[in-house]
Amino acid sequence: MNFTRTRLMQDAFRSHSTREAVTVWGRLNSLNVQRVLFSAADLALPVDHIPAGGQGGSLSTPEFLALNPNALVPVLKDGPFVLWESNTIVRYLCRAYGHGAEDARDVALQERWMDWYGTEIGSHMTALWGHTKRGKPLPPASAEHHWRRATALWKLLAEPLEAARFLGGRDPGVADYAVGPAVHRWHAMAPHDDIPRSLTRWYEALSMRPAYQTYVLNAPL
């Protein structure tokens, strides 16, 4: 395949070092790719990252389309098993290798925040990230709308994070892996006076984890 192959393995992530690495295709500045790399590494899996998309290589080659016919990243390969769609990958990794909730109600409460990001706040974050960081300015009225809605929506996380270190409780879970990379972008964009203290504490707790540092904090914009 026409991809530059990079090996990204950290000493802190090697408790599963006797097993074969999971392979992740994608570009490091993609939020969807970040959530997959962050979750895999935080779950102590060896990670083999292959840049794909953008400068990483075409997603329209026959080889890549055999992995994902939608020509999108990320894609995960775990042994012979291939999976695409970032939230689905995160759910799989947590169920296969994680310390996530087992009770159906606890699982649903976490997965609710995964879906919330995609259906409620994700479009506002994408617009604002392009507006502030990627040279895609919005008309003033549109920018104001996205700022207002994103600010209000992020505040919805304040209450559950008052009671726990992570959305997953004592340890990160599927919601932390899915939404956590985006809170880094929010702290890079929003006035800190508009960010609830519990949200900042969550961001600080995530930032202490080596996997988050590698695949989110140090990722290119």
Automatic annotation (TrEMBL):
The keyword Transferase applies. Belongs to the GST superfamily. One of its GO terms (molecular function) is transferase activity. Coiled coil: none annotated. The keyword Flavoprotein does not apply. Keywords: Transferase. It comes from Pandoraea anhela. It comes from the Bacteria. Residues 20-101 form the GST N-terminal domain. This is Glutathione S-transferase. Pfam families: GST_N_3. InterPro entries: Glutathione-S-Trfase_C_sf, Glutathione_S-Trfase, Glutathione_S-Trfase_N, Thioredoxin-like_sf. SUPFAM superfamilies: GST C-terminal domain-like, Thioredoxin-like.
